[in-house]
């Protein structure tokens, strides 16, 4: 069956500039024939009914309504139909924005973001490394930071999901961590500047707790743990540029939880809500939306203009529109994405609820951001 899609390589492709809907036959790569970038799937247009048919039907209905009114209900006030509450949050007045509506005109968001972070002074900088035990595996990052707090990501390595899925053996874990540590040392990071951290969601997992014990007993390293609130603040220290502290907030969408942070009256504020695997714990979409709408009511309006976002699902969304190796990508609206799998679907529910709660229309994904880098930047 043929699929239809649009190219989002705006500025570099005529198909994208002209918003052309491209039909791709089954079996062929779902890419733009001009620029060869991946397409974003759209719903097929329904066949249009001729206008004359609409006029004929409208006239017939009007005639029947006039006849029925005069024959049976003359003098009676019109009855107002009950409002269907199925599209409301718990029957309230706030409608649930239906995600994945690829025909919606609200599929914009994609706005330019030209900010470039300051580059650290190589002569006054220090290399720092960190290994993160996350809910889906372990990752490592090396940054260069100078005495003015300017930083740059030098190297990143991402592990597999075997840890979380209960398929990694003890030998796999030890071998993988030793390789990570060796790579960091080879890059020039001094042993005292290598740190280890477990995310708030991962530290509750039995297998991750086992890994922490292995690191302490077999490798001699201590793993630092953080609360969701601390993790939210570390994410902010990594991703939020100083010039945007007065009008932006931060979202770090993980599998176990989603962390939100911002600056209020000069202080960092952080809280968390459901993660993108909430469906595995039998939580409903409506329950997640309600929680987000309630918690975001406390976020000051002045910091809702821009959202700096990171995490697994946002990474997958940004990957669809990245053109080269740019540091930042502005996401499309949640309506514009067609989810692939339950986790991405749940992530889009979270994204949609945040957009609804804040009315923010600029979500900036940072390819170099990770909360563990914020932790590194907090160490003198």
Comma- or semicolon-separated keywords:
single chain; 380 residues; alpha/beta; six-stranded mixed β-sheet; 9 helices; 21% strand; globular
Write structural notes for this entry.
Strand 7 (194-198), helix 4 and strand 8 (224-225) form a beta-alpha-beta unit. The termini are far apart. It contains nine helices and 14 strands. A six-stranded mixed beta sheet has the order 11-10-9-12-14-13, with helices on both faces. The protein has helices at residues 14-17, 51-72, 170-187, 206-219, 228-239, 285-296, 312-319, 342-358, 371-377, and strands spanning 3-6, 21-24, 40-41, 125-134, 137-146, 151-158, 194-198, 224-225, 248-253, 257-264, 267-274, 306-311, 328-330, 363-366. Residues 44-49, 52-58 and 64-106 have low confidence and may be disordered. It is 30% helix and 21% strand. By secondary structure, the protein is α/β, with parallel strands linked by helices.
